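Q: Sequence in, structure out?
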Amino acid sequence: MKKAKVIAISAVTLFGLSGCGSKQDANKSNFQSAIQDYFNTKSGVCVMVPAKEIPFTLQKSGGMNFINEPEKAAALVSAGLLSAKDTEVKADFGNKMVAGVQYSLTDEGKKYLVKGAAGNLGNWDAFCGGKYKVKEVENFTQPADMFGTKISQVNFIYEVDDVPAWAKQPALQAAYPSVQHDLSDAPGDKAVLVATSDGWMHERLFKSKGG
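A: Exactly. Output:
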């Protein structure tokens, strides 16, 4: 009886272990973990500072605006991250001095400023807050080989936890539509995941590790 009992227990144990699965399996659980691992490397919801350095000045009117700098700066002031003071600046065209605004960092802004977090070519700074969280993996493509690696495209829903008050400001969301999207009800996105020896990995995380 004892021997039979031991054999039965061993069989149950082996069955349980075989049912645990592998990190290399293509399933919603593994894909959710892989996307969350990538999210954990991000600084949260970020809005780019509309200048390379702070403080910075902008011409009040008639200046050259490539990325809607005045609108973004005004929104950051409204959100309490920057302060504004009237000043004079050299005109974008010609040598005369014209009306301008100097923008400086507030104490609130210092809490959320992250160096190089804008993600643009110049690695500008950004104000960041909150934490991305994968809420649900909706579906995914069957893994396929591409250029020597196995990949799958995953559609998922996410949310942002611990959203800072400034990110909820209507003026800021109007100037930075991506924030409005991120904080909408159950926003969706897609990701390409790569199969590795350590399990599935977000393609951006894979590339950052030299893949």
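The first helix runs from residue 2 to 18.
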